[in-house]
Queue: 2 jobs
Job 1
Amino acid sequence: MQQPSRAQRGSPPNFANPAHPDYPAAPGRPSKSRYDAIIIGGGHNGLICAAYLARAGRDVLVLERRAVLGGAAVSEEVYPGFVYSVCSYVVSLLRPHI
């Protein structure tokens, strides 16, 4: 039996609206106790995986330890006015002896 799509089940999650049933009950805590999938890590690949699963009609929870999503794809302000790209992928380009 095929699961109903997210569109058939109702509106997509809207965490900006406290009246929405998926709005977290408390800061940092999910409002539901059961999900079809739990993605550990809110980096690029985790977010893409969650998007595909949600588009397929699954209830998905993404857990990220940081307050920022994006993993290696984020830019951060380390000092006031100094923004840099994390670029974690660059480490894999270094020669092994470095």
Job 2
Amino acid sequence: MGTFDSHVDAPNQIRQEGEDIVIAFERTGSTTGSVTWNIPSPAHGCNVDNQAYNGIVVVLNTVANKVDNRPVDGTVYTGDPTADADLHTGDSIDVALVIGAFYDDKTTVKLDLSGLIPDTAYFITGHAVDNVHRYHQQGGSTYALPYLYTEPVADLGGYHEVCWSSTKALTDSTGLSSTTSYTFDLQIDTTDHDITIDGADALTFGDLVTALNDAIKLLENPFQSTTAPNTGAYWYDSTAGKLFQWDGDSHVEIAVIKELTNPTAVLSDEYWLDNNGVLSKKTGSPAWAIQTVREVGWDPGNPSCAAYWDQTGSPGQMWKWDGSVWCAKPTLIQTKDPSCAPDLTCSDYWFDETTEFLFVWDEATNAWVQTEGIAWDVDPIQPALGTFWYDDVLNKLFKRTTGTTWTEQAVTLSETAPSFPTVGDFWFVPSTQLLFTFSAGSPEWAPTEVLIWGEDPTVPGTCDLWWNTSTSPQVLSVRDDLNDIWVPVGSFTISATDPSLAQTIPVGAIWHQGLHGSPEPTIAYWEWDGSQFVLIDSTNVIEFLTDPTDVSIGDVWLDTVNNIYYERIANTGSPLISAWTVIDVIESAQDPTMLAVGTFWFDTTDSSLNMWNGAAWVTVIFSTTALTPAS
């Protein structure tokens, strides 16, 4: 870039885009009119994602707008589209009325005015604004600017001309001394500035122009550095409870431990909550013991009549507290609203508990078509050693003897038990597809788990089905060969009732919306009142395998309404809540007894920030407000 080249500063991108706005005013009646404008294109080198334009402020005056009528950066204005100063309820800038203020708005291009005085001239200017409330100061006007008023050249930054009585080349010597400082009295936007230049920086006229331009840039931006202001500084957001470090462009979140006491001085029976929401207790051996937590908004030892229990075991059951005991509720576990007319697709599957057949919905015939899948409690691609597989096409039995090998086993295929068996013999009943192993104990023929499939289950075919029997509710997945993964099917219903038929729903039935064990389960609970499903407050529902009211001393409860952890210290007390004590939980991504150098701890006792240096905590200076530079 040459000495006299002009360029746009990045912070003044809004100015460059604002120059492209064309604003117009038209009377639509004696007292009404309309103002229209266009949305500018992004500045050169930018796109829609980093466009500066984020709205516009429109001002009206009965004389040409001057500097005093321009919006102030950082100020948010309120507009009112009336030109009658006595009725106008919006802001004013000196004597100019703000008739429109559109922030975070890249679509509005018109406003209708009222309260105009007949036969009166109006001067209207629109100032583009960016997302941090910096304005295009010149603005775009509906009228010609006053004669001899020189506006900056569109799409260019400010420039200065320095003239001498005779023509000078940039390489000509200024004659200034390199050991002397010189002061220049310059007027910029009607303001006088004394600018001091070191003679050593102005030995030629080109050097002098460069030095003057650099000094002018620093009048309102005196900070000079190869890095942005506050780079590396810390900000603790007390509202969100998060720590950030400013990298010169944005805030980068940093993991921080929030704790009342020194987190490295962990005592026995203290609790640690990691970033995955897993709560552990310091026991000594093992060092940390993972806790089973009752997560609900009511006291598990004293549930209210609005309490619900989602029993997460197989097949899944909902219960409601009646004040004394849990009452089982008809439970509908599915992703779709049971009260709606069935809207089945080719991704819907149904296991008929009566016939014990698996079906898939055929959209062409609007009917169920029988299909089959691998029913097993682990991924059949990775069976455990000792797993049995019965090939029902070849009628052969195999055992997984190595990580890659199936070894054929001798087996008797019969509807009745074999005669004269020896210990370790296998018997397969074709009609029931059950496998038994002969033992010396009781019973002699012991049931043996077996995976039944017509081909090697470790090499599933494209779109084969796997029924994971270990989850609750159980999940049916289809093989995606393209990405080499199992993908849950759209809907899987396990029921003796055909899900394509309209359901009869008893009053009080609970719809369990969502499936446990899905990749990202979103669970919601609804109760049928006879005409519709009513949403149950999730804080009133506890997901637990066993009776959640069967509380023992030492059990942990998370009050999901107030986000407080409690430990059970007694099974008596009045009120009963006194049987719980609040837990001071250490929140840390790392084991607090093995913290890495550079770990941060925010001491919630005295609101101080500290960093671990491997031997001790060192206090760190931090900001309580965001480090984003002011406009």
